[in-house]
Amino acid sequence: MTTRIDGKVISAQVLDEVASDAAAFLAEYGIKPGLAVVLVGEDPASQVYVRNKIARATESGLNSIEHRLPADTSQETLNQLVADLNAAPEVHGILVQLPLPDHLDEEQIIAAISPAKDVDGFHPENVGALNVGKESLVPCTPQGSMIMLESVFGKGNMSGKHAVVVGRSNIVGKPMAALLLQANCTVTVVHSRTPNPQELAKQADILVAAVGRPEMIGPDWIKPGATVIDVGINVIERDGKRKLVGDVEFETVAPVAAAITPVPGGVGPMTIACLMKNTMIAARRLASA
Q1: 206 to each of 82, 86, 199, 210, how far by Cα in Å?
Q2: What's the pTM?
Q3: Does the domain spanning 140-269 belong to CATH 3.40.50.720?
């Protein structure tokens, strides 16, 4: 019987922990942990993501601070806003929603955010610290994926497992590989230039799909009894309707796997929950600095 790894249930547990910690923080310091969210432009998907993040922050007892800027906002204006948020004592976490309009430099903005408030975990200092095993703010999607894996294996019980990560993005693939290495897995990263990726994937005890191609990974990629984490979120047309699917062909892969995340309802809720968790971690570190 295949285990369906339920991101809604696990994320609710994470958010309950955040809410409890946020209440304790308020009692201790007289201020709510503050998450500042910056949205530039009118991208519909980004608006949905921001709305969900703000809702979860409020539910978790965080102070949600929203900045909505027009699409023609200049680099100078955005830089100044980030500088102001870096200096604001009531702000513990800063999230600039990506993608930004084309005329804005995303790398510059990511680097401008204080590493201590970089709750996305994208700042080069946090990336470097993660890769050498130092204290850092960890990107939310890989962090959420690890929590889901721990729900299957137990904390500290992945040592020696062969993990294959399909995809090498800076946001998911690379940090996911770093976290799996920290868990003492043997890690293989498969990408677009890898010969015979299917053969490598089929050796995996743990397969993480983060490639952004709808239902690319079928049952012939999966070792029987493997645990599959599907990070992909892809919109496709099927039977005249728009449907959300992952990078894994769920219906055919699930019978082969021992455990698998669905799409939707898998990694997605965990990403937002870990954003709140990171805000709480940042608030604690800043308060004790």
Answers
A1: 38, 38, 14, 13
A2: 0.96
A3: yes
- Ramachandran sector of residue 236 (left: φ over 0; alpha: ψ -120 to 50; beta: rest): beta
The answer to whether the beta carbons of residues 97 and 78 sit under 8 Å apart is no
pLDDT of residue 1: 85
Say whether pLDDT at 239 is over 90: no
CATH 3.40.50.720 residue ranges in the chain? 140-269
- C-alpha 210: how far from chain center: 11
Location of each CATH 3.40.50.10860 domain in the chain: 29-114
What's the mean pLDDT in 259-282? 97
Query: Using one digit for the tens of pLDDT, what is the confidence trace for 79-105?
Result: 999 999 999 999 999 999 999 999 999
Which candidate in 32, 97, 143, 223 is catalytic? 97
Catalytic residue flag (residue 102) = no
Instruction: For residue range 148-207, list pLDDT tens digits in order.
Output: 999 999 999 999 999 999 999 999 999 999 999 999 999 999 999 999 999 999 999 999
Angle, vertex CA 145, rays to CA 97 and CA 121, nearest 5: 40
Nearest to 11 by CA among 132, 99, 140, 111: 140
97 in active site: yes
The Cβ of residue 55 has, within 10 Å, a number of other Cβ atoms equal to: 12
Pick the CATH number of 29-114 from 3.40.50.10860, 2.160.10.10, 3.40.50.970, 2.60.40.10: 3.40.50.10860
pLDDT at residue 289, rounded to an integer: 84
Pick the catalytic residue from 21, 117, 118, 120: 120
Active site residue 247: no
